[in-house]
Design brief:
- The chain has a domain at 15-58.
- The protein has one helix spanning 3-56.
- The chain is mainly alpha-helical.
- Keywords: Membrane, Transmembrane, Transmembrane helix.
- The chain crosses the membrane at residues 12-35.
């Protein structure tokens, strides 16, 4: 192999490594965002449940 091919091979490997790192970071971000969304949805559902319980028991804003 001559110098030009060696340089091309090194650049190609570096580009592949950078691409793989970016894809892993993107995947981790998507997974993290999904779990944050699920947690937020559970919190909202629980708060709505508590508000429904308070209304059914005659409480309005914590007072009878």
């Amino acid at each position: 192999m001559d110098e030009r091919q060696t340089l091309h091979l090194k650049l190609s490997l570096i580009l592949q490594a950078v691409t793989a790192a970016v894809l892993l970071l993107l995947t981790a971000t998507v997974i993290f965002t999904y779990f944050q969304s699920v947690a937020a949805r559970r919190t909202c559902s629980y708060q709505a449940y508590l508000e429904g319980q308070a209304q059914s028991e005659g409480f309005v804003d914590g007072a009878r």
